[in-house]
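User: I'm preparing a small set of examples for a lab meeting where we compare how different chains pack in three dimensions. I only have the primary sequence for this one, and I'd like the structure in token form so I can line it up with the others. Please keep the answer compact; I'll paste it straight into my notes.
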Amino acid sequence: MKPQAFLQQLREQVQAQLAILETEFEPLDIRALQFKPAPASWSVLECLEHLNRYARYYLPALRKALAQERPNASTDAEVGFSWLGRKSYETVRPENHKLQKTLRHMNPAQSTLDRSVLTEFRQHQETLLRLLSRAAHANLNRKAVPIEFFHLLKLRLGETFQFVIAHQERHLQQAQRARQQYQSQATDELRLVV
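Assistant: Understood. Below is the structure token output for the 194-residue chain.
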């Protein structure tokens, strides 16, 4: 895919993710945000905090990679993917329903979380949109972003954007399921009372 079409597709995905935040999560009260469908499951806030932890690493890494871009970088070549980039994306893409082990420092379970998690997530999405705009003048095929858990391995700029956004989509869907289960349980409890 050509870089401009690729970046536009990613921008649309981030804007859709922001819309989910605004319409589905921000209106919820704290009980709904903290509801866990099962003891080992994550709440809406835990899903978003997990994404915030990843954003705290990957957004500065993307910013740094974009700042190191050469002025005359080749920006028109088809966006390509390395073996590592494809494997990383496959692991986190929302259609992959296989459970993945979370790194301990990225696991928000048992954290004390409040509505500030939503604010931070919004700020990260706004930053991500600005970085995607800056990437329009970058070589998306340049290996530039170290992997969070093993800095010797690097992802290409384009595949890093795709990885981050797919990972967000995966956990936003998980958060939506937690919200739906909370609402279903609340509806069932209301029926019992009436």
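A couple of notes for your slides: The chain has a mean pLDDT of 89. The beta strands are 143-147, 150-156.

User: Perfect, thanks.
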